[in-house]
Amino acid sequence: MEKRKNSFMGEIKTDVDLKNYSTFKVSCIAKYFCIPKDEEDLILLLKSLKKINKRYVLLGNGSNVLFASSVFDGVIISLEKLNTLEIQDDFVYAGAGLSLIGFSTSLSLKGYKNFEFLTGIPGSVGASVCMNVGAHQQEISSLLSKVKVLTHDFKIQYYKPEELSFSYRNSFFKQHKDFICLGAQFKLEKGNVEDIQKRIQEYKERRQRTQPLEFPSAGSVFQNPEGYTSGKLIEQLGFKKYKVGDAEVSEKHANFIINRGNATGHDIETLIQMIQKAVKKEYGMDLKLEIEIIK
Questions:
Q1: Can you tell me the distance from the alpha carbon of 93 to that of 83, in angstroms, rounded to the nearest whole number?
Q2: Phi, psi of 240 (to 5 degrees)
Q3: Whether residue 290 lies in the annotated active site
Q4: Catalytic residue among 104, 124, 169, 217
Q5: Is 55 assigned a catalytic role?
Q6: pLDDT confidence of 6, banded at 50, 70, 90?
Q7: pLDDT of residue 196
Q8: How far apart are CA 264 and CA 29, in angstroms?
């Protein structure tokens, strides 16, 4: 990487409404919104923020977060410029800021199989690796060869999947927020394009039947407790179509909370807490969040 002066080369914006950076589409004003130009820029920014002890949050596609306050008095760092895509031999490297849908769809169209289940998940590659996203009994960690990581002391290292404690919607990154996924290398395997496209279409039709894709949401709100599905537990308690403000439990899938137009982050968080309390009272279970709440 070419050496340059110690000056931030990316974009810095102030008082940015995060409504357009989150799939929940709720309003929250970020005091500062930074878009690093590249990895060197990101490191420079993080070092500067650490020196002044300034709070920051890394943002991918905003598909798994809820901004629960009207103002975020810190720095939002978008990784959208970390969008490298390189195919070499039987591997592909994807930068953390790449759209997971775009990445997986592109590989599928090129005839690489096993990525079909990712083509409907609206996250970024980095965030998806960190939370080990999955669908149709498959998880992204199963495709990984190695992960590029920025450590807590600003060193870039590569980790094997077995070193990152992947489990259901969990990984090393969720317990170590000062380690950042910069990108990942995936294993490639050629398949039959027609078969691949058929599976993608089947998954798409299933999503359309079972998920409220016509409304803003963040996908599944809660993780599934072992042996149960959160949606079924919530449905059995009669929460379908239950509303707080413009936040509503989807009639189509009870593990989705949708924004019917003008829901606030507080509306959605209140509904989440009501569901958790009801499930705890009725079933003695603690529903763990699949999304991240940021205040």
A1: 10
A2: -55, 130
A3: yes
A4: 169
A5: no
A6: confident
A7: 97
A8: 12
Residue 5's pLDDT is: 54
pTM of the model as a whole:
0.93
SS3 of residue 73 by DSSP = strand
Catalytic residue among 128, 220, 230, 250: 220
- One-letter amino acid at 209 equals R
Alpha helices in the chain (DSSP H): 39-51, 100-109, 125-130, 172-175, 193-210, 230-236, 265-283
- For residue 49, the tally of other CB atoms under 10 A from its CB is 17
- Residue 32 CB contacts under 8 Å (≥ 6 apart), including other chains: 12, 13, 14, 74, 75, 76
Instruction: Tell me if residue 169 is catalytic.
Output: yes
Q: What is the pLDDT of residues 209-258, one digit of tens each?
A: 999 999 999 999 999 999 999 999 999 999 999 999 999 999 999 999 99
- List pLDDT tens digits, range 143-187: 999 999 999 999 999 999 999 999 999 999 999 999 999 999 999
Of 142, 134, 143, 144, the C-alpha closest to 168 is 134
In the chain, % helix, strand, coil (3-state, to 5) comes to: 30, 30, 40
CB 167 within 8 A of CB 150: no
